[in-house]
Amino acid sequence: MVIRGLLRAAWRFAAGGITLIFAVMSFNLCRPRPEPDRLGPNPRILEQLAFLEWSSQHGGPERMQALFPEGAFFCHALRSLAWTRVAADAPRDGALFRSALDAARRGLDSMESQLDAFPSTEGLSPTHGVFFAGWINWTRGAILSLGVRDSAGTEMETAFRRDCDSIAAAFSSAGTPYLESYPEMSWPSDNVVCIAALRMHDFLYGAKFVPVISEWLLKAKQRLDPVTGMIPYQSHPFDGIPMEGAHGNSQAVILVFLAEIDPVFASEQYRLYARTFPAHPLGLWLAREYPKQKRGLGNIDSGPVLFGVGSAATMVAMAPMRVFGDAQAADAVRSSIDALGLPFTMAGKRRYALGMLPVADAFLSWAETVAPYTGRIAAAPSLFPHKAWRLPFLALSAVIVSLVWAPLLLGRRRARKP
Predict the structure, then answer these.
(1) For tag attachment on the chain, is the N or C end more exposed, with fewer CB atoms within 10 Å?
(2) Which of 189, 76, 82, 178 has its CA nearest to residue 136?
(3) If you average pLDDT over every residue of the chain, what do you get?
């Protein structure tokens, strides 16, 4: 009897825990999205960035660096870009603008400090390869777009112009649109960021790199993934021929920056993305890592892939959805992530998954704040969530909770019988 009582108590405790988890997930899934404050940034974004600032001071980027090669770099880059968008939405004469600008500049400084950890990229063209050259110069351009012309801004502008010239020279002398990120390794997404940095230069300082950008677009359109028609995930480092077709995580990033370069081509690519990568297990709005007709395992970029759904692909999926006008779909993705990621706020700091993966928080912050810099993109909604899209997950949650409690309720009923 004692053992049976202990087992019943343990089952009751486990059932209570499972019920609590599904209750929180369901609440997060159904919680109304706050209307954006037209007078300033979303408070939730500020809470997420507060956590990222705290994490950057307590070893978060270093822990992420141990997980994959650019872990620390992405923590700093995405945090800096999110702060830049906060500054852009804040009143210019307010304290928030200045603090956001300072945080964005600190993030950029941290990005540049990471270069010493990658000596193998020093001999590449452009220097340090297109991955570092692209993200650093794009971040510089984003900060410069805020229009602050102090001594730090002047120094940053000089570096931005210099490196844009270096990037343009590298692409002009190459026979491929996809230069090396690391020795003998090329990823088109990194190249797209580089070309977007040139477009940012022309937006800020006048047309200079139009021929380079046009030539790059021509070459890129000749080297699309033959299966999906999209820009590939990986290409041959010397001729740009696709080596690996489009992936969900890289395609989402590519689309955000391609929209800056050529909105028409980007819209065409987005429509292909919208038909290929969104996934709806149990009604949730998530994203595949691989196209529907292909199966694959997770890799260092994709993170875990479960039943075809990619963790990284899902985290960044709302970024292109926001850029191309699929606001309802972006909200559905965010609500689904809130359900699965179990976010919570403590001491004004919002984090996901107990804050164990700050690079994930950084990607989410960037994806939720991303917006075009160099021009307005014509909205072309392609994804329309059904009004009852949450119902399958809620129904399954109710079934699981009922099954967990059923043995206890049946046991209690038997005990009451004479």
Answers:
(1) C
(2) 76
(3) 91
Q: At what angle do helices 151-172 and 129-144 cross, to 10 degrees?
A: 140
Q: CA 258, CA 269: separation in Å to the nearest integer? A: 9
Q: What CATH number is associated with residue 162?
A: 1.50.10
Answer whether residue 35 is part of any domain: no
What confidence category does residue 399 fall into, taking pLDDT thresholds of 50, 70 and 90?
A: very high
Distant-in-sequence, close-in-space partners of 326: CB < 8 Å, separation ≥ 6:
274, 381, 382, 383
Q: Are residues 2 and 46 in the same domain?
A: no
3-state secondary structure at position 365:
helix
Domain that includes residue 11, residue range: 1-30+390-418
Shared domain for 91 and 122, answered yes or no, is yes
Closest CA to 156 of 137, 170, 173: 137
Q: Beta-carbon neighbour count of residue 326 at 10 Å?
A: 25
| 238 and 297 inside one domain | yes
- C-alpha–C-alpha distance, residues 285 and 310, integer Å: 12
184 shares its domain with 277: yes
What's the pLDDT at 398?
93
In this predicted structure, the answer to whether residue 310 has a pLDDT above a threshold of 80 is yes
pLDDT of amino acid 412: 62
Tell me: do 379 and 399 sit in the same domain: no
Do 101 and 146 contact (CB within 8 A), yes or no?
Answer: yes
Does a structural domain hold residue 53? yes
Is residue 381 very low, low, confident or very high in pLDDT (cuts 50, 70, 90)?
A: confident
pLDDT digits (tens, 9 = 90+) for 313-325: 999 999 999 999 9
149 is a domain residue: yes
**pTM for the structure as a whole:** 0.93
**Structural domains in the chain (count):** 2
| Token code pair at residue 229 | 């028609």
The answer to whether residue 36 is domain-embedded is no
- What is the distance, to the nearest Å, from the Cα of residue 65 to the centroid of all Cα atoms in its chain? 17
Q: 264, 285 in Cβ contact below 8 A?
A: no
d(CA 342, CA 305): 19
Query: Among residues 30, 49, 53, which one has the least CA distance to residue 41?
Result: 49
Write out the DSSP string of 209-268. SHHHHHHHHHHHHTT--TTTSS--SEE-TTT--EEE---HHHHHHHHHHHHHH-HHHHHH
Reported as a single tens digit per residue, the pLDDT across 264-305 is 999 999 999 999 999 999 999 999 999 988 888 888 888 889
Task: Say if residue 179 is in the same domain as residue 214.
Answer: yes
What number is the average pLDDT over the span 44-68? 94
